[in-house]
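Fold it.
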Amino acid sequence: MTKRLLGFLLLIAQPLAAQAPATSKKEEGPQVRFLAERVPPNLGDVVMQVGDNKSTPFPLPVNQLSEPQAASARAFTLKTADKGAPLCPVTLPEDGKSFAVILVLAPPSGYTPVVVRTDDPDFKSGDVFFINRSAQTVLGKVGDTKVGLRPGEARKARPTNPVNNTYYDVAFGVQEGDKNRVISTTRWPIDNLQRSYVFFFTTTDGTTTFRAVDEFLPPPTEKARASN
């Protein structure tokens, strides 16, 4: 009798276990990549901190975006890894799961963050994100797209009208009183697998210049190509 009862209980337990709801996978937090305008000497690695929770230490790059870092919350403080010195607070928008945090120097120490949502459908391959850190108004033209940036401004732009569908004519200048002075003319090749971040800043001798950092994107999936 005992063996029959045990067998019966095992028989009915199997379908009940099969019907038990699966434990839902915890949603991953936002992914953040960092890019610094400049990095002071001996800064060392940094961490993202929320309360007592710290991320794994990582370096701040200046020539490319960092590897994605998982944020445990949408508001955190960036600190030095060795001494825990705060560099800046960062707050991510509620919308989006992927971000670039562009760090511009904020004297006497630390940074001011510029947060860019990198999974924004309006921030596409080939686009340019401009940041004017200079003391002058910057004027630019990428193909037929015109850009004007007052000191401290930042915005996205989409180049238009490439030459022979191969490259864009690019020119940058600054306002000096009633006149405009050209600081650079060049050509940018079309690359559908990257977008760029361009910093304008003032050098120690008072000259306004710029540098560009490219973000390389993965090839679009078949689904993404079909939807375009």
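Residues 2-19 form the longest helix (18 residues).
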